Amino acid sequence: MPAPFFPTTRFTAATAPGGLPLLGHALALLRRPHDFVAGLPAHGDLVRLRLGPLHAYVVCHPELVRRLLTEDRVFDKGGPLLDKAREVFGNGLATCPAADHRRQRRLLQPAFHRDRLPGYAAGMADEIAGTTAPWRDGDLIDVPATMHRLTTAVTARCLFAAHERAGKLPVHASMDAVTRGVGRRVLLPLPGADRLPTPGNRRFRRARRDLREITRRLVADHRATGTDRHDLLSVLLAATDEDGRGLSAAEIHEQVVTFLLAGTEATAATLSWAWTLLAANPAVRERLHAELDTVLDGRPARHEDLPALPLTARIVSETLRLYPPPWILSRTATADTELGGHHLPAGATLLVSPYLLHRRADLFPRPDRFDPDRWLTTASPAPGTYTPFGLGARRCIGDAFGTTEAVLAIATIAARWTITPTPGRPVRPARSASLAPRPFTATLTRRAR
Ligand code: HEM
Predict the structure, then answer these.
(1) Where are the domains positioned within the chain?
(2) Is the CB of 390 under 6 A from ligand 1?
(3) Which alpha helices (H) appear in 226-281, and where do they start and end?
(4) How many angstroms does the Cα of residue 396 sit away from the middle of ligand 1?
(5) Which of 395, 393, 387, 443 is nearest to 420 (CA)?
(6) What's the pLDDT band for 2 if we cut at 50, 70, 90?
(7) Which of 8, 110, 268, 342 has the most CB atoms at less than 10 Å from its CB?
(8) Mean predicted confidence (pLDDT) in 367-386
(9) What would the pLDDT profile of 34-44 be if each residue is shown by its tens digit?
(10) CA of residue 383 to ligand 1 center, whole Å
(11) Exposure pattern of 100-113 as b/e (b: 16+ CB <10 Å)?
(12) How far is 156 from 167, CA to CA, in rounded Å?
């Protein structure tokens, strides 16, 4: 384990002020979630919240964040958000407990080996070209929906070799209904409310059914061709346990749905935010255009271009600092334990917010400013400081995949198009477990070089 970077041995703990009778801090968290959470370090390194009958501790200090995320057997995946997410993703890689995690991660890791990236990048380039092919000068697009369709097509193609059919599968609509459904279910105050025949619940259940059908078709297609394409689905279908048994249909389904969601949501949100940040910072955009004109000269970006696109890469890092899509991560203490010298009972819910850490002025000077060049001068941030991909054993398995996809998409699209959000309608974050923008439109302008 790396030595603690922060020499502090004393960490402060407090209860967040402003809790209401019965509701506690739930209302503040619902009304202005991001500002509320970003303000918590002012009260302590470990800040207790009351959410109705539940208590949760928000870990605000990077050293405690490092400990929490790296001690994954003491602080296991858990908490109310995770429990609801398990209704959809079951025991897939992102939601399984630590006891299952090592085995699953070892099984799936080969699909994310560094050597696989150039092949994936070729698929990404094709899907980016397919997305922009119908664009015309002056078109108005719904940016988050367009980016989401792009990242869904990339995931379906690269991880499930389903590119011929990806466009025909209702993946995009189903994932959307499921993510919204999970978010709403966490916030539903009444026990059993998620079983009522409301339109939202019906949509959620239909989407879950559709996803089962999508997995069934992907697996059936894959088995019909009988070829090992070295993608994630091939790995899943070839996997066997010590007794030579393969994964059950339910286990395969849980992993497919996990990767369809994890592989698409965060990258789509990153791309959507990047377009708003570039539009609001024309000086950075001009420098980006200069980089792209020099390196690409009008052609689409390829994997081998990545080392020559350092500003594009810094734009992605800085977008992820300002808007880390999984902006709040949750864990449960598996036994009575301590963190920063403070007792935590078994079952305690702990929350880590990359958003909170990334907006701390003591860690990132002028934190609200979009400044890709801060990544030129900053030495590697201390562990627990910059955490868009998490940390430790549960760190994102698709970090290089997602970053490559984001850099290729920004480079290829910005080389030929300027995306200008419709003026007078500020882009706001959705109130959800993922820090994604609400739907917004933008005008496409073909660049004259
Ligand atoms: C910009 C893009 C992405 C961001 C910001 C991101 C962020 C994260 C974060 C913060 C975690 C850790 C969650 C936790 O500790 O509770 C995570 C886990 C995960 N991510 Fe990503 N992710 C991205 C792209 C992807 C892609 C492209 C894939 C798949 C192709 C993917 C698959 C996963 C999976 C399966 C996990 C669970 C890993 C485990 O528990 O072993 N992610 N991601």
Answers:
(1) 13-446
(2) yes
(3) 232-238, 249-262, 265-280
(4) 4
(5) 443
(6) very low
(7) 268
(8) 91
(9) 999 999 999 99
(10) 17
(11) ebeebbebbeebbe
(12) 9
